[in-house]
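can u pls check wat happens w/ NAP
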Amino acid sequence: MKKIALVTGGTSGIGLATVEALHRRGYVVAFTSSKSVAAGEQIAGQDRESLRYLQCDVTDKEQLTAVKATLVEHYGRLDLLVNNAGYTEVVPHSNFDGATDELWMKIFTTNVMGTWWASTLFYDLLKVELGAIVNITSIAGIRPIGSSIPYSVSKAALNQMTRLLAASMENVRVNAVAPGLIDTPWTESWDQLRENVRKVAPLHRSGTPDDIAQVVVSVAEATYLTGEVIAVDGGLTLKV
Ligand SMILES: NC(=O)c1ccc[n+]([C@@H]2O[C@H](COP(=O)([O-])OP(=O)(O)OC[C@H]3O[C@@H](n4cnc5c(N)ncnc54)[C@H](OP(=O)(O)O)[C@@H]3O)[C@@H](O)[C@H]2O)c1
């Protein structure tokens, strides 16, 4: 029987590469996004049973609950949850006024609460299948770097949530993949940073979404791995 995976934020960048890698690997993949409905439907194409797009904003628990109902109705199970949907804005760390309460709330509701709600909501399904959760965090949650202080703090929270859930969930492996700088629409205009990574990182390049998807699939299938945060950054954290 084919395994069923759910990827949040699967219409672009790292999420899309993960959807495609899991699909190639033989998973049935359901994936979500909050706004990009046309892109989602196009990616899913004709074969809705093995690649299913579902509009769902991870900041809305009711929408996540509706996704669960759809998965139960169509497949009756879930083997893998990839919490990938995330949000940030670029705010220099010394610009304290720029890190507004609204920004803190939006980043935390999306990155932290979205992951918490999805993980706890799908836990009962994952537990039955000896399933796995992979959280897409960031090296910004490991080092004092990143696009804004609220973003970095949210990713540090997710790294710790990963360990806490791994210790508390029965029969579900929980791990995090923490990317460095990856070339996606999110980082399209970050040329200066890309140049710095080329100079500093031991692998002398920014990453591709496929670089991350490859590790997500490996972590999802690593049967004795839980509670780990794996930096996938071309060695950047060795230097910063
Ligand atoms: N790119 C990097 O260098 C990098 C580095 C470290 C970590 N990351 C992490 O990797 C993840 C993906 O980033 P990316 O660079 O691939 O970004 P991206 O290309 O902008 O893709 C983001 C995806 O998430 C969806 N999304 C955003 N908000 C959502 C919400 N509230 N509910 C559901 N889906 C939502 C987007 O679709 P809609 O807009 O239609 O909702 C889109 O499908 C994020 O968690 C990010 O923090 C990225």
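The chain is about 45% helix and 15% strand.
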